[in-house]
């Protein structure tokens, strides 16, 4: 019996060793394949087949080691050197990597962005076209990458914070397709130089305070492009600089680990235990992965030999992670030299096959279009009056182009068509024109679609439900209307969470959440630190994981602190993933008239132009705001809702269907009909204009007042121009700087809607001054449009 037991243990030991050996060799295979992809991709850029390349060479072993502990349900929030992570987790294949390098717009070939983003920008879908969330627990998830350095950090906090909410909010425990009791980790990766960004520091501080399952991996290759680390980081080490954040007994903070990027066994040992601890305890951790190399330099735009010493270059060759792992395998007798040589040869073949397959898929349809163009252009050479040599030249140039692009075909076609406009009735010319129009439209769909959600996810799919009022409707202050609304919302929608500065205990500075934290608990309604950037990050990450956050910026003036992730991440998300990924965050704030330079903000032009892709809601009162929240919460699109700062104590009637009525996006409301002049405005200015209209009526002028309600989208049915057809006079009024929001509205109506055709007098814009508003009542009067300004402007128009 003893001998048999010993034999059994020996067999089990051999099997365990064999499994371990296979796993190690598979990891080495992944590292080799990723390296070969980097080397081959660089050549593709330098030979002109691709525009630009940035690769993860030198980080392969560390990323393979990290990826071993990345489970279904986890999220990645990384940066553009994570190709090995993508390959190791199955998020991407080498062929898809090359398809993205070539900017293939076919989502079957390049599913991450449909050719819209440069290489190594990965994304996984989170919502179906039916508006239902996918089973994220069956997937290894990746938030859509973006290039701004450290921009991935704020949303990484939110992705981890969502796990905290899923664990602590009992009402979410049944959402098994979105979370397994909050056991999911967000893996964030960042280059060492980017830790100098404020985004990194704010995120790390917030993670330490909140205690969320965030694993941050810092790839430290000693440089920020050409600038050495000593000029980047205090004490020449990010882990040393962060030592004060290290968690100790009885404190918050995070764990800090130091590993070498070439030490496969050491990293696996540390990562396994540390990741398990993060998953179980929700204590965040920073992994400082040191002694990383960068064999090909920063990117294809330059050579690292220009700024690295010979000694450094020599060291990088010696400590190349793949070579170090290779030596370790041989030293530990996990296989022989011949096996490794075969793995390395196979890696070259795999990379070559991936490159070839991706290129053929990319170029074949273009070459087919070239042949189609040639078949339509050739008959033109026989048409009387055609410049046959011009046509032949366009054909020859396209046929000689070994790597044609879609634009080359369209340029050739339009070159011929423009120069033969006089023959537009000829059948051959018409055939080419039809081809050009259809091809151009199809490619516009490839490159210009999905700025906003479509189908069931779109705000435009939400039925319009008017507000209803009982005969004895209660009249309340505006903030009380919102308070009742948010109370009902939090009660009935378990996915909604509200947070921001002073939102919790005191119920926000204007009392819309007064008493609600006490009623619903601090998990659902939460105070935050003064950190607008990561408040936005919290909301972004939660929204990416199926929750419905209402993230508050206390005053609109402070939106600048949180604007970068909203602009670069949220607003562009649906576009840059070609509709695959959605982030239905609602950012709540307040602005327009009040007092002083930093509490009277109306920077609408800045917002409109930096947040294309979001809904920008500008309700004139709190009932309208509630209706907008209802619409947004039924759709899956991001939005900024700007409540009127001076409207919280104005009286409003309470609708009987407060939680169900909706305000449509992009549909202005005519507040008063008139026949002489159309006045277009929004937000707090509606009350100023209404007051002016009273005076104008006494002067015999009939004004039509239109509240645009949302600036993005803007008047989707072109109802404003219908008013202009009636009045033949129009003025756009707001509190932004000259050339800001009013110029945008002017362009939309005059140009997009063709409003210039119906003008009898010059259109007007009435705005605030170019400077920020001065403090005090007189400061407001002279800084922003007032009632007398509106009256004088309209009378001038009537007398023109």
UniProtKB/TrEMBL annotation:
Gene3D superfamilies: 3.40.50.920, 3.40.50.970. It comes from the Bacteria. InterPro entries: DH_E1, THDP-binding, Transketo_C/PFOR_II, Transketolase-like_Pyr-bd, Transketolase_C. Its EC number is 1.2.4.4. One of its GO terms (biological process) is branched-chain amino acid catabolic process. It is an enzyme of class 1 (oxidoreductase). Residues 476-650 form the Transketolase-like pyrimidine-binding domain. Pfam families: E1_dh, Transket_pyr, Transketolase_C. SMART domains: Transket_pyr (SM00861). Its cofactor is thiamine diphosphate. Keywords: Oxidoreductase, Thiamine pyrophosphate. One of its GO terms (molecular function) is branched-chain 2-oxo acid dehydrogenase activity. CDD domains: TPP_E1_PDC_ADC_BCADC. E1 component of the 2-oxoglutarate dehydrogenase (OGDH) complex which catalyzes the decarboxylation of 2-oxoglutarate, the first step in the conversion of 2-oxoglutarate to succinyl-CoA and CO(2). This is 3-methyl-2-oxobutanoate dehydrogenase (2-methylpropanoyl-transferring). It comes from Chitinophaga varians.
């Amino acid at each position: 019996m003893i001998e048999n037991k010993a034999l059994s243990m020996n067999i089990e030991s051999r099997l365990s060793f064999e499994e371990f050996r296979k796993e190690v060799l598979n990891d080495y295979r992944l590292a080799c394949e990723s390296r070969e992809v980097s080397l081959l991709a660089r050549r593709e850029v330098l030979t002109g087949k691709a525009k630009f390349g940035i690769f993860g060479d030198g980080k392969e072993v560390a990323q393979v080691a990290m990826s071993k502990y990345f489970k279904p349900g986890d999220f990645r929030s990384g940066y553009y050197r994570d190709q090995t992570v993508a390959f190791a987790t199955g998020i991407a294949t080498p062929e898809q990597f090359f398809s993205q390098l070539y900017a293939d717009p076919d989502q079957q070939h390049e599913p991450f962005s449909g050719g819209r983003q440069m290489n190594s920008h990965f994304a996984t879908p989170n919502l179906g076209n039916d508006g239902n969330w996918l089973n994220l627990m069956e997937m290894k998830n990746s938030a859509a990458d973006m290039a701004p350095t450290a921009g991935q950090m704020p949303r990484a906090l939110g992705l981890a914070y969502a796990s905290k909410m899923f664990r602590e909010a009992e009402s979410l425990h049944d959402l098994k397709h979105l979370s397994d009791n909050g056991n999911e980790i967000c893996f964030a990766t960042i280059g060492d130089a980017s830790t100098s960004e404020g985004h990194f520091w704010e995120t790390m501080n917030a993670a330490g305070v909140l205690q969320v399952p965030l694993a941050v991996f810092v790839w430290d290759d000693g440089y920020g492009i050409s600038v050495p680390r000593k000029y980047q980081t205090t004490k020449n080490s990010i882990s040393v600089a962060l030592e004060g954040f290290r968690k100790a007994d009885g404190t918050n903070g995070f764990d800090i680990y130091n590993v070498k990027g070439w030490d496969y066994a050491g990293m696996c040992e540390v990562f396994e235990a540390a990741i398990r601890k993060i998953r179980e305890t929700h204590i965040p951790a920073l992994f400082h992965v040191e002694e990383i190399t960068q064999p090909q330099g920063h990117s294809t735009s330059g050579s690292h030999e220009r700024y690295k010493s010979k000694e450094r270059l020599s060291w990088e060759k010696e400590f190349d992670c793949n070579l170090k792992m290779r030596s370790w395998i041989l030293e530990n007798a996990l296989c022989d030299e011949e096996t490794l040589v075969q793995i390395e040869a196979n890696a070259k073949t795999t990379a070559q096959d991936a490159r070839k397959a991706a290129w053929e898929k990319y170029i074949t349809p273009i070459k087919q279009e070239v042949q189609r163009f040639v078949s339509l252009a050739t008959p033109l050479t026989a048409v009387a009056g055609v410049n046959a040599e011009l046509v032949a030249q366009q054909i020859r140039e396209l046929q000689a182009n070994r790597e044609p692009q879609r634009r080359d075909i369209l340029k050739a076609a339009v070159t011929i068509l423009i120069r033969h406009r006089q023959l537009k009735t000829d059948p051959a010319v018409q055939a080419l024109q039809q081809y050009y129009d259809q091809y151009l439209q199809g490619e516009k769909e490839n490159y210009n679609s999905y700025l906003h959600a479509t189908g069931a996810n779109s705000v435009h799919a939400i039925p319009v439900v008017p507000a209803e009022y009982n005969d004895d409707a209660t009249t309340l202050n505006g903030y009380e209307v919102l308070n009742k609304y948010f109370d009902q919302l939090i009660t009935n929608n378990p996915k909604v969470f509200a947070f921001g500065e002073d939102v919790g205990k005191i119920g926000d500075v204007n009392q819309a959440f007064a008493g609600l934290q006490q009623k619903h608990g601090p998990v659902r309604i939460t105070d935050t630190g003064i950190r607008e950037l990561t408040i936005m990050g919290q909301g972004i990450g939660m929204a990416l994981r199926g929750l419905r956050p209402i993230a508050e910026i206390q005053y609109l003036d402070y939106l600048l602190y949180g604007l970068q992730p909203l602009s670069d991440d949220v607003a562009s998300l649906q576009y840059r993933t070609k509709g695959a990924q959605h982030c239905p965050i609602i950012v709540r704030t307040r602005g327009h008239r009040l007092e002083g330079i930093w509490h009277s903000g109306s920077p609408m032009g800045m917002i409109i132009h930096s947040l294309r892709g979001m809904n920008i809601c500008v309700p004139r009162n709190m009932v309208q705001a509630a209706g907008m929240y209802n619409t947004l919460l039924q759709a899956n699109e991001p939005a900024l809702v700007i409540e009127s700062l001076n409207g919280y104590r104005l009286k409003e009637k309470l609708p009987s269907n407060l939680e169900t009525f909706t305000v449509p996006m992009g549909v202005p409301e005519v507040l008063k009909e008139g026949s002489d002049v159309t006045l277009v405005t929004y937000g707090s200015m509606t009350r100023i204009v209404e007051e002016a209209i009273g005076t104008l009526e006494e002067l015999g002028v009939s004004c039509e007042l239109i509240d645009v309600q949302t600036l993005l989208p803007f008047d989707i049915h072109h109802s404003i121009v219908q008013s202009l057809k009636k009045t033949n006079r129009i003025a756009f009024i707001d509190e932004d700087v000259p050339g800001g929001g009013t110029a945008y509205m002017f362009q939309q109506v005059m140009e997009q809607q063709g409003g210039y055709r119906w003008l009898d007098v010059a259109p007007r814009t009435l705005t605030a001054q170019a400077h920020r508003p001065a403090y005090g009542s007189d400061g407001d009067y002279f800084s922003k449009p007032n009632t007398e300004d509106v009256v004088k402007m309209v009378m001038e128009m009537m007398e023109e």
